[in-house]
Amino acid sequence: MRKAVGQCSSKTSVKVQAKEPELYDGTRSTKVIGNFCLDVEKYLRQLGTCLEEDNIRVAAKYLTRNAKLWWRSRLEQIVAGHI
Q1: pLDDT of residue 45
Q2: Cα distance between residue 58 and residue 61, in whole Å
Q3: What is the pTM of this model?
Q4: CA distance 69 to 63
Q5: 11 domain-assigned
Q6: Which of 44, 49, 52, 71 has CB atoms 3.0–4.6 Å from 4's, for a disulfide?
């Protein structure tokens, strides 16, 4: 997902209706994880968000079940300064 952050440009671009990525539930499969990451990166580029914080918030919206629980735990650690 961080790759999409560096794609920001101040050039005028055509707005394209971005297809939202499918939800990721924490399935431990290289194929599923890879496809999710690619879909999120593509979506973020189409949205044109530039700030890493915004990209993280957007990407986190597409986490569900175990992935959502993991993210909530990770975010709490970040906020507490443990990471």
Answers
A1: 94
A2: 5
A3: 0.76
A4: 9
A5: no
A6: 44
Token pair, residue 83, equals: 């990471």
Range of 79's domain? 25-83
Residues 70 and 48: their CA atoms lie apart, in Å, by 27
> Which two three-digit tokens encode residue 40?
């999120």
- Residues 6 and 46 sit within 8 Å (Cβ to Cβ): no
Q: How far apart are the C-alpha atoms of 12 and 4, rounded to whole Å? A: 17
Closest Cα partner for 20 from 54, 47, 56? 47
16 occurs within a structural domain: no
Token look-up 């709490």 returns: 76
Q: Which of residues 18 and 45 earns the better pLDDT score? A: 45
Handedness of CA 30, 26, 72, 60 (dihedral sign): positive
